[in-house]
Amino acid sequence: MKIEQVSVTVFKTTSNTVHDTDGHTHPGPEHDSTNAMLTITTDDGHSGYAFGQPESLRPYVLENFIKKVFLGEDPMDREKLWQALARWQRGSGANLTDRTLAVAEMALWDLAGRKLETPVWKLLGGYRDSVPAYGSTMCGDEMKDGLATPEDYGKFAEWMVNRGYRAIKLHTWMPPVSWAPSVKMDIKACAAVREAVGPDFPLMLDANHWYSRTEAFELGKGIQELGYYWFEEPMDEHSTESYRWLAANLEIPILGPEYAYGKFHTRAEWIATKACDISRVGVADVGGIGPSMKIAHLAESFNMDCEIHGGGAGNLAVLGAIHNARWYERGLLHPFVDFDEVPEYLNSPIDPMDDDGNIPLPTRPGLGEDINFGYIADNVISTH
Ligand code: LLH
Ligand code: MG
């Protein structure tokens, strides 16, 4: 079996979220948006699919890197193909990103699963057939009845508990919110949520990512008194030493790194230098499912949990195959956004959640996405 064709379909979608000037997601007016589907097909008629941002799969990237590495190769040689792409990143002039690697590698996994008629999480070695979810809020805003005040967070937390979420993570206010960041306001929001959900409900905080050490320390102390379960990314993650200092000075577990570059190498440094108590990986952050599994296993060797950043098919596959992660991150949630609405390019959601806060692992072969090929065909913007 050889890869015969690799192509990208860019198509129109509808979105009701927007990004601010720091890249945070917020509710917005309904507007046209775009998505891209990478398709890999073999000489014996098998296909694999994965979705990504059109910019990560633009013609230059497809022609100069993905096709050059993939065409004519056995799609089951995932490690060989991933290593070839990962090595090429250094000399790619920053064109080949971890996000591109992740989409390309996920399409290989999807192809393998479809060919073998098995879900990817089972190919990886199944551990569980469902996973509890935590509700992960959007960052704070200045919208009336949105996430503008500590009381708004408290009210929304009550809604999340009633919806079934098994834990809650707050993203609090960050620039460009006019008065943010504010340690005092973050602690007030965390206190309002604790008050709303009671003393035993698991809560986590992912606050402004650019606090100083002293600010991070003050905030960490505040939420450890409120019985929060983990403290995530309060400072720039490229300073491992700052996190080592924070972890040494606080009792609350420090989780990370989430966005720091360097894949498993960076996670290993954080664990070895005691910069974190819980490791962190997301398939889009580290270049795919394979490297995510390496990181989860690395953490396991240190008796450490490794919590998964973000949702979607790839992250679910990893969660289905590891034991050292407690929750699926479902979101980002906001009072104005119906997260249960199915995106038009799918026939059913990848992460439906029952009233007890459980997400079943998909039973479809491959990554398990129920792709609406008809919608995509009707809304093509370009193919390459
Ligand atoms: O800053 C943000 O908008 C969020 O932190 C976002 O990146 C989210 O993906 C996250 O960190 N989840 O854990
Ligand atoms: Mg985070």
Describe the structure.
There is one protein chain. Helix content is 36%, strand content 23%. By secondary structure, the protein is α/β, with parallel strands linked by helices. Strands 4, 5, 6, 7, 8, 11 and 13 form a 7-stranded mixed beta sheet that branches. Strands 3-2-1-15 form a 4-stranded antiparallel beta sheet. A two-stranded parallel ribbon has the order 9-10. The mean pLDDT is 98. The structure holds ligand LLH and magnesium ion. Magnesium ion binds next to loops. The site of ligand LLH has 10 residues, from loops.
List keywords for this structure.
single chain, 384 residues, alpha/beta, seven-stranded mixed beta sheet, four-stranded antiparallel beta sheet, 15 strands, 36% helix, binds ligand LLH, binds magnesium ion
Q: Which helices and strands occur, and which strands form pairs?
A:
Blueprint: E1 3-19, E2 25-42, E3 47-52, H1 59-70, H2 78-88, H3 98-116, H4 120-123, E4 130-137, H5 150-163, E5 167-171, H6 183-197, E6 203-206, H7 213-225, E7 230-232, H8 240-249, E8 254-255, H9 263-272, E9 279-281, H10 283-286, H11 289-301, E10 306-308, H12 313-320, E11 328-333, E12 346-348, E13 358-360, E14 370-371, H13 373-378, E15 380-383
Bound molecules: ligand LLH and magnesium ion (MG).
Ligand LLH binds next to loops.
